[in-house]
Amino acid sequence: MRIHSALAVACLSTLSISGALADPLPVVAVNREIGLSMAGLFDNRVNGGSAIENTNATNYTPAYTARYHSRHRRIGWVPGFQVDASGMFTLGNVENIYAAAQFVLGSGSRNYKSNYTYTGSPYGNFSDEYGGGSGSHSTYTRGEIGKGFLVLQDRLLLTPFAQGGYITEDEYGYGDDGSSTFVGAGLKADYALTSRLVLRGRFGWAAQLERRFMFRGGVQSRWEGGLGLDYRMTRHFHLIGGGDYVYSDYGHGTTRYSYGGAYGGSGIESAGAYQNGLVLHTGLAYRY
User: Fold this and answer.
1) 3-state DSSP assignment of residue 175
2) What's in the keyword line of the UniProt record (predicted)?
């Protein structure tokens, strides 16, 4: 009888150890990784404005309406790298708690183009454009926390999350730099195409807390979308790759003014800015 009891205990122990050592589901495993990737960063940022000025007639000049328009654009690719770290764990009776961090650095040279026109003035019309290469350095740091839900017979993992992060941008050639903190939320989806290959998707939104370009009113929104693949080469090493797109709306501003006196008149000025970018990356991840 004692022998039978000992064998039963041994079997249960073996099963427990086997369960503990068993590999997690593919869609959970891809959320327990530390990865390093090579990256290419594309950026296209546009800002500009226009103005219309109505000036009254004087003893020296007739009444006239002058128009001004300007446009500034930074565009191009730079090389960089990306670091990802994520974890999915159980806390008490709550399974698939998710936490992740990401850091992306890009450094190189982008093109900077600027042009403006001024028409309608009795003093003449003017226009000019200039540009060239501009040293560009940027960092992107993001943290996420959420909860995963398994559906479709554990082949699909949906993870709503809250996010926050910090962005820095420096343009050495033209002194164009800035930084921004953002907070928001989103949804991740991981789908197991096979036991080795997982398709990954991410959608997010965030509000940028620092005002860029000094526009008044409204929320400066940041929209994010990404697709990627995660392929398990061995039990612990995965090949990763994908692309992440982002669009930032810095808003619009409009100012109306008037002035009196011998040189009286009125006018309206408006300005706006937006930015979109793409990060393509491929690398290797360790599943712990």
Assistant:
1) coil
2) Signal
DSSP string of 182-235, one letter each residue: EEEEEEEEEEESSSSEEEEEEEEEEEE-SPSTT--SS--EEEEEEEEEEEESSS
Model pTM above 0.70:
yes
- Answer for the pair 206, 246: CB distance below 8 angstroms, yes or no: no
Domains and CATH numbers, the chain: 28-287 (2.40.128)
- Print pLDDT tens along the chain (288 aa): 444 444 444 444 433 333 345 789 999 999 999 999 999 999 999 988 899 988 887 777 788 889 999 999 989 999 999 999 999 999 999 999 999 999 999 999 999 899 989 998 888 898 999 888 888 899 999 999 999 999 999 999 999 999 999 999 886 544 456 788 999 999 999 999 999 999 999 999 999 987 665 555 567 899 999 999 999 999 999 999 999 999 998 887 788 888 776 667 888 888 888 999 999 999 999 999
